[in-house]
């Protein structure tokens, strides 16, 4: 299995504060993953600090499995 996180940072990479915003997204979802079985098909949308959807994460089958 693979854990895939995709985040669209926009044209200005979160207004020049990409490291802070990506860190916040990673901390939030890292703290909430225990609510999921983490099996293929699981996933959720990800939002920035302005509550705008910017991507999501998902669990997928790895190639060859």
From TrEMBL:
Entry superkingdom: Bacteria
Protein name: Uncharacterized protein
Species of the source: Streptomonospora alba
Species classification: Bacteria, Bacillati, Actinomycetota, Actinomycetes, Streptosporangiales
